[in-house]
Amino acid sequence: MIKQVLVTFLLLFTQLYNIIELVRFMIYLDNCATTKVYKEAMEAALHAFEVTYANPSSIHKAGFLLRNDFEEARECIKKFLNIKSGEIIFTSCASEANNIIVNSIKDIKKKKILTTAVEHQAMNKPIDNLVVCGFEVIKIHPKGGQITLDDVLTKLDDSFGFLSLMHVNNEVGSITRVESIAREVKKLYPDIIFATDAVQAFGKLRIDLSEGNIDFLSMSGHKVHAPKGIGCFYAHDTHLVKPLIYGGEQEFSLRAGTENVPGVLALAEAVKILDKNLENNYKYVNNLKNKMIASLKELDGVNVHSEGEGYSPYVLSVAFDNIKAEVLVHILEQEEVYISTSSACSSKQKKHMRVLEGYGYSEKEAEETVRISFSEMNTEEEVLKAAELIKKAVKFIRSVKK
Ligand code: PLP
Q1: Greatest extent of the chain over all pairs of C-alpha atoms, in Å
Q2: How far, in Å, are 31, 133, 154, 357 from residue 129 at the CA level?
Q3: Pocket test for ligand 1, best of 90, 170, 217 (most atoms within 8 A of CB)
Q4: Are 93 and 230 in contact (CB under 8 A)?
Q5: Quick one: 3 exposed, middle or buried, by C-beta within 10 A (0-12, 13-18, 19+)?
Q6: What are the tens digits of pLDDT across the range 119-143?
Q7: Is the CB of 197 under 6 A from ligand 1?
Q8: What is the pTM (predicted TM-score) of this model?
Q9: What residue owns the CA closest to ligand 1's atom 8?
Q10: What is the Cα–Cα distance from 194 to 209, expressed in whole angstroms?
Q11: How far is Cα of residue 339 from the mean position of the Cα atoms in its chain?
Q12: With 90 as the cut, is the pLDDT of residue 314 above it?
């Protein structure tokens, strides 16, 4: 009995020690995969777990008061996106949001879709699934990194019913100017439905939906320092939305299920912080990225894929000649430096090739590409240390291979 207690205690102690060590020394540069939750967002969620835990649909006072907070949170997101008409509908994540968006167009008359070859699977797969409903899907392969108005207009004509362009690519950080593209496209094709997966842009680039040219936009809480399990989408015209989950009348009867109140309140808290700091964060993170690039370029055989104005400062895609990305990621984890091969959602399946090859990279280049993604929570010291460790690891792998 005593032996059993001692063993359990030892195991618990070891686990706790490992966690403390990890948090103390970890240099987390995988912020496109997910982010650390803001303390304020955590406290908002905790308050909703501990104190205001009623169901916001209940007719009693506790429910009613919570409903007010919940709707205030929705307004906060609408204000952040400068929404003049339309609604924000909360979901469990951006994948769900994208699936609802794509499901909403399945009965439209014009059965041609224009999208890109570099969408996240959460948009790519639902769109591809529409082929069985008689849709034809055309994909733009971006030349030179960015998707331009020209790329869109050369493919588009009046037979297209849906256009979906991601705002910031999650693997290389390439920025698509969706607001201006939507404006020009709507001048020529006012009936086309325009959607954008803005998961990696929301909270990082200023997004203004006031012109009303974007019909749908999706985002995810856990990419912007809110918890996992909360996302939302904007619908310019809620009549267009075709739900995937039927049941209660939550979310304007467009997404049934008791609301994730802690998640929504935490997201609103994160959005308030991001709103205040967005421009400063952008500059700060841009400096981190530039410092990382400058340091890595001291090595030979470094190919930076995402440098300059057309790329988000939050994402650095870089390849090291003759170094398998997977090997580098695993060597760095030994030093508590966390980067990634590509997107977290596809890294287990080697499907990341799809996006990099969509950008025109060869299979070899794709295999050598790592993604280093920043947040304003990273320090310059961390970034410089990580750069040194990356260079050391690259030199080590190259020396072993000789
Ligand atoms: N879209 C993009 C561009 C993403 O980067 C991700 C996650 O990596 C998603 C969609 C899916 O987001 P979620 O994890 O909230 O489903």
Answers
A1: 78
A2: 29, 8, 25, 21
A3: 170
A4: yes
A5: exposed
A6: 999 999 999 999 999 999 999 999 8
A7: yes
A8: 0.93
A9: 33
A10: 12
A11: 16
A12: yes
pLDDT in tens, 187-201: 999 999 999 999 999
Cβ contacts of 76 within 8 Å, gap of 6 or more:
268, 271, 272
HEC profile for the chain?
CHHHHHHHHHHHHHHHHHHHHHHHHCEECECCCCCCCCHHHHHHHHHHHHCCCCCCCCCCHHHHHHHHHHHHHHHHHHHHCCCCCCEEEEECCHHHHHHHHHHCCCCCCCCEEEEECCCCHHHHHHHHHHHHHCCEEEEECCCCCCCCHHHHHHHCCCCEEEEECCCECCCCCEECCHHHHHHHHHHHCCCCEEEEECCCCECCECCCCCCCCCCEEEEEHHHCCCCCCCEEEEECCHHHCCCCCCCCCHHHHCCCCCCCHHHHHHHHHHHHHHHHHHHHHHHHHHHHHHHHHHHHCCCCCEEECCCCCCECCCEEEEEECCCCHHHHHHHHHHCCEECECCCCCCCCCCCHHHHHHHCCCCHHHHHCEEEEECCCCCCHHHHHHHHHHHHHHHHHHHHHHC
Mean residue pLDDT of the chain comes to 94
Active site residue: 76, 133, 232, 345, which one? 345
Contact 352, 346 (CB under 8 A): yes
User: CA 266, CA 116: separation in Å to the nearest integer?
Assistant: 32
342 burial class (0-12, 13-18, 19+ CB within 10 angstroms)?
A: buried
What residues have CB less than 8 Å from 392, skipping those under 6 apart? none
At residue 371, φ and ψ (nearest 5 deg) are: -115, 125
Ligand 1 centre distance from Cα of residue 95 (Å): 6
Q: How far is the CA of 19 from the centre of ligand 1 (A)?
A: 26
Q: Residue 54's CB: how many other CB atoms inside 10 A?
A: 17
Contact in structure between 360 and 352 (CB atoms under 8 Å): no
What are the CA-CA distances from residue 218 to residues 19, 64, 101, 319, 381 (Å)? 33, 28, 8, 30, 34
pLDDT at 278 over 60: yes
Verify whether residue 76 is a known catalytic residue.
no
